[in-house]
Each structure stands twice: as structure tokens, then as C-alpha cells.
Amino acid sequence: MDQQSNKEPVKITITLPTNAYFMSGIRDFTLSMIRNMTKFSDQWAYRFQSVVDELCNNAIEHGSSPNHEIKVIFINYPNESIEIIVEDSGTGKNKIKAENLQKLVAERSKPGYAFNEIRGRGLAKIVSAWTDELKFVDLPTGGIQTRIKKSLNTPMPDMQVSGAVQQDPTHLVLT
Amino acid sequence: MAQIIITTEDIVSGNPDKKLKLLKFSGQLDETNVDEKAKGIYDIIGGVPQGLFLILDFEKLEYMNSKSIGYLTDWYTKLSEKKGGILIANARPNILDILQVVGLTQLIKCVGTVEEAKLAIMQ
């Protein structure tokens, strides 16, 4: 499938039950879609896989209750950028407004922020790092819409991960 | 639902103060399975009072989410408190990438092979 010659944005919308059971399929779809429809590298295809997984898990766990639905929207702007939008149902137990969620993520994204819990790294450390824009919007339904955007041309160097970690001088050597 | 298999084997360390276990991960660690699998790792950590080192062989680990990374950090902390530790071996580029972005490679040593991990622990 070659969408590169077409300048029009391509929008794909997926509605999912609020159950993490379906996330492996969405991850597979994301990887395949980024590889086949965009010019992002394979490394970025894996990164978007994580971004989508984290956004959907948050929407399911925090923004929705069982037996509801979340919506995932991919918009590919050929040769320019990818936008991913995830909307929760607003039926979750712990209600939070978009403005407060933005503040929470900003706080946790600060260098040196100490994570004392198992959770909390998804939006703050992964999604924030691998996107150019991360926005939260209150929906009329009471839910939250999370929008991320990543440009193909952002001057963000790929991390050299193959074999480079062994030379990372910041590693602690366990003895 | 994602599948994950974790196998465990003891490694002879030759040093009575250091106990080594090799944990091989195969599949994907995600929201559907990580809580259950983490319990097994906590049992292993709790079963050795001092000096336990875990070598996590990620050669066949295809995916890990942020919660898995949270658990990994917690296992490292618990083992370090008991004069032990964790080393990661054979991780694929996408796994190293996510470990790097959350800063975990500054805490946990990542090496290319299980043999390198053993050597690093026994030094």
C-alpha cells in the first residue's frame, strides 16, 4: 500500500472495547501501519507501537469502566507527520480534567522526577519523549481526548540502541 | 491477549555470597499479563535472603510496556537492598530503546550476552 504519492491525509478510526485483551492486535496494527503507510523508520514504528499502547491503556484503566469503548484515530499526513488521537469514554472511577492531567504529566516529565510507584511512566517518560505534541482535551461526554503528533522532519536524533548501551558511561557496574 | 513465557534456571556462581538465576523471557509483557508474571518474580526475590543476582535474558522478549518497566525498577531496588542486582542480556533494539527513554539503562546494566552478564556479576 503506497500512500506517499497521495497528499491527502489518511484517517483510520478504530473503536475498541475497554479491555486490554485487544491491545496486542492494536500494537500489531500500529507497527504495520507505520511501516507501510509512512516514511518513519522502523525504530519509530516500534516507538509509535509503545505510544499507542500507553495511550490506550490509560484510556481503558483511568478513563473508562468495563463494557464501554475507547476510540483510536490515526491520521497520516503523507511525508509530513502522524497524528494519533485516543478518546476514553469518561466512565472511569477517577475523574480528572484535561488541564490537571496536563499539569500532572508536565510534573512527572521533569528531569529527576522520582517515580515511587509501578505506574506513571507511560505518558510522562515514553509518550512525552517520543512525540512533538501531547495535548489533552475535555470531551463533552466527560471523557478526555489525548492527541499526539510527530513530524517526520523534527530534528530529534534516533537513539543509537544497537550495541551502544554497553558503552554508556552512566551505567552502574554491579559488583 | 499477549503471550509471555518466563523460564528460570539456577546458575552456579562459584561464590557463596552470590546466587545467580537466569530468567528467559519469550513473548510480550503487557497490561494483560505483567501483574501475574510479576508475582512469580517477587516470589523468587523473596526466596533468597541475600546476594541474589537475576540475569534477565530478553533475546525473545518482543515488547514491554511502562508497567513492566515499573516492575523492573522495583525488582532492582529490592535486590539492591539485599546486596544483589539485575542485569539484562540480549535485549532487542526496541526493548533497549524503551529502557533508555525511561532512564533505566542508567540504573541496570545491559549487556550483549548471558555470558557477559555472568562475568559482570562475578567480577
Could you please describe the fold and organization of this structure?
Chain A has helices at 23-37, 42-61, 98-109, 121-127, and strands spanning 10-17, 69-77, 81-87, 133-138, 144-151. By secondary structure, chain A is α+β, with helices and mostly antiparallel strands. Chain A has one domain (10-167): Histidine kinase-like ATPase, C-terminal domain (Heat Shock Protein 90, 2-Layer Sandwich). By secondary structure, chain B is of the alpha/beta class. Chain B has one domain: Transcription Regulator spoIIAA (2-Layer Sandwich), CATH 3.30.750. A 5-stranded mixed sheet of chain B has the order 1-2-3-4-5, sandwiched between helices. In chain B, α1 packs parallel to α2 (66-81). The longest helix of chain B is centred in the middle third of the chain and has 16 residues, at 66-81. The relative contact order of chain B is 0.18. The model of chain B has no long low-confidence stretch (mean pLDDT 96). The A-B interface holds A 20-21, 23-24, 27, 43, 46-47, 49-50, 53-54, 57, 60-61, 115, 117-122, 125-126, 129-130, 159, 161-163, 165-166, 168, 170-175 and B 1-2, 28, 30-32, 53, 63, 65-67, 69-71, 73-74, 85, 87, 93-94, 96-98, 100-103, 105-107, 109-112, 120-121, 123.
